[in-house]
C-alpha cells in the first residue's frame, strides 16, 4: 500500500488546484493530432471535484450554441497546460449540479467581489502561468536531449 502512495505522490502536479467549485475558469488543454500539438481552451463553470489523490477530477460546464457541454478533466493530467480563473464564484455547496436545470439569469452564480479577492485571483493566475512556463521549458529541454 505504501508503494502505491509513493508512486502517486510523484505523479501529482505541484500547485495543480488553485480554483474551487463555482469559479469560472479557462482550462488550457493540450491536444495531439498526429504529429502536431495545439492548445485548446475550454471556458466554463466548475461544477464539482471528485475522487482524491492522483485520480482527482473536476467537471467544467459551458453552454455552446444553446447546448450545455460538460467536460471532465483530471487535476494532475500532464495535458493540462494551465487553469486560469476568469471569475471567482460564491457557492455554498461542493457540487452544484442544480445549475444544469437552470437557464439564463437563473443559472448565474454570485461573484466574489473585493480587492482581496482580486489579488488572490491574480496571484493564482500568476502561479498557473509560472507552472505552465516551467512545464514548457522542461519539455523543451527534454526534446533537445533527444
Main attributes?
five-stranded antiparallel beta sheet; 34% strand; 2 helices; alpha+beta; 146 residues; single chain
Can you describe what's shown?
It is a single chain. The chain has 146 residues and is an alpha+beta fold. The chain is 28% helix and 34% strand. It has two helices and five strands, in the order H-E-E-E-E-E-H. It has helices spanning 2-11, 115-145, and strands spanning 24-33, 36-50, 57-64, 67-74, 80-87. A hairpin with a 2-residue loop joins strand 3 and strand 4. It is globular.
Instruction: Categorize the overall geometry.
Output: globular
Strand tally: 5
* Helical residue percent band: 25-40%
Helices and strands, in N-to-C order? HEEEEEH
Strand order of the largest sheet: 4-3-2-1-5
Alpha carbon gyration radius: 17 Å
Mean pLDDT: 83
Short précis:
The chain is an alpha+beta fold.
How are the secondary structure elements laid out?
Elements: H1 2-11, E1 24-33, E2 36-50, E3 57-64, E4 67-74, E5 80-87, H2 115-145
Antiparallel strand pairs: 1-2, 1-5, 2-3, 3-4
Amino acid at each position: 500500500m505504501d508503494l502505491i502512495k509513493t508512486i502517486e505522490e510523484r505523479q501529482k502536479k505541484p500547485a495543480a488546484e488553485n480554483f474551487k467549485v463555482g469559479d469560472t475558469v479557462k482550462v488550457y488543454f493540450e491536444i495531439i493530432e498526429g504529429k502536431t500539438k495545439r492548445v485548446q481552451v475550454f471556458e466554463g463553470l466548475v461544477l464539482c471535484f471528485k475522487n482524491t489523490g492522483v485520480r482527482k477530477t473536476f467537471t467544467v460546464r459551458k453552454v455552446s450554441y444553446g447546448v450545455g457541454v460538460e467536460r471532465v478533466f483530471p487535476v494532475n493530467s500532464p495535458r493540462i497546460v494551465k487553469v486560469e480563473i476568469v471569475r471567482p464564484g460564491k457557492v455554498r455547496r461542493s457540487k452544484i449540479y442544480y445549475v444544469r436545470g437552470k437557464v439564463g439569469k437563473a443559472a448565474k452564480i454570485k461573484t466574489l467581489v473585493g480587492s482581496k479577492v482580486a489579488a488572490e485571483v491574480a496571484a493564482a493566475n500568476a502561479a498557473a502561468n509560472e507552472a505552465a512556463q516551467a512545464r514548457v521549458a522542461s519539455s523543451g529541454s527534454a526534446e533537445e536531449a533527444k
